Amino acid sequence: MADPMKIRATARDGVVEVKILMSHEMETGQRKDSSGNVIPAHFIQHVTATCNGKTVLSAQWGPAISKNPYLAFKFKGGAPGQKVQVTWVDNKGDQRTDEATIG
Amino acid sequence: MNRQRREILKKGGGLALFGALVAAGVLRPSDVRAVEWNKEAFQSKTLADALKALGATATENTADVVITAPAIAENGAVVPVTVTSNLPKTESIALLVEKNPNLLAAVFTIPEGTEPHVTTRIKMSESSDVYALVRADGKFYTVAKEIKVTLGGCGG
């Protein structure tokens, strides 16, 4: 199981800014190890963020997203105290969901 | 006792429970993978192929989409990029790096109520133009920005 994400959500003037730091190798499948074998690709393919059951952002990623991905975005309609939930799924089917309270 | 009937009831019960869980939002199979990962687009090796796989057959240049990124990135493994769209009804934002082995880095779907403004960090194998492809009101718009990379992000 992968490490938890760090999520920070702050509301200002009705707009919630969400910053997410995920913990993932994001291996491209292009690199080789010391003995010349290709390291298999291992990267996050899907990211979904929801607030109050409504999807506020969804994304498809390729291996060109940096290791330990960072993602920031803003949405309207969230209020302090509500929760923002973020889920990712990688190409091996692993997934992780974490949530943060809007502050 | 009618054995077959028992079996059918059991199976039916299981299905009903599954349905109820889905309805109650406990199981949300479609949530995360609402759209299948666009393999064709992510494996494209040319800009034309990638745009085609994303459904962008005709694109227009625009000044209403801004890519914010350093002109010179020291480390190609971590290039911070922000895309802001000022186009009304922005539906999605895609990020493409022209000289990466596979051009497409990410596609963000922007639902109503979310600002068309995303920040992330991407890998770049070498200095290249970075394209933002924005779908707004059914039309596709592109904007490019050159980012120079001192150290490539694909080797080790």
Secondary structure elements and their pairing?
The complex is a heterodimer of chains A (103) and B (156).
Chain A: E1 6-12, E2 15-21, E3 44-51, E4 54-61, E5 70-76, E6 83-90, E7 95-101
Antiparallel strand pairs in A: 1-2, 2-5, 3-4, 3-6, 6-7
Chain B: H1 3-24, H2 29-32, H3 39-42, H4 47-53, E1 59-61, E2 65-68, E3 72-75, E4 79-85, E5 90-97, E6 104-109, E7 114-122, E8 128-136, E9 139-151
Parallel strand pairs in B: 1-9, 3-9
Antiparallel strand pairs in B: 2-4, 4-7, 5-6, 5-8, 8-9
Describe this entry's structure for a reader.
- The complex is a heterodimer of chains A (103) and B (156).
- With 103 residues, chain A is mainly beta.
- Chain A has one domain (6-101): Immunoglobulins (Immunoglobulin-like).
- Chain A is built from no helices and seven strands.
- The mean pLDDT of chain A is 93.
- Chain B has two domains: 1-34; 35-151, Immunoglobulin-like, CATH 2.60.40.2470.
- Chain B contains four helices and nine strands.
- Residues 21-32 of chain B have low confidence and may be disordered.
- Classes of the chains: A mainly beta (103), B alpha+beta (156).
- At the A-B interface, strand 3, strand 4, strand 5 and strand 6 of A face strand 4, strand 6 and strand 7 of B.
- Strand 5 (70-76) of chain A pairs antiparallel with strand 7 (114-122) of chain B, so a sheet runs across the interface.
Features:
heterodimer, A: 103 residues, mainly beta, Immunoglobulin-like, four-stranded antiparallel β-sheet, three-stranded antiparallel β-sheet, 7 strands, 50% strand, B: 156 residues, alpha+beta, six-stranded mixed β-sheet, 4 helices, 24% helix
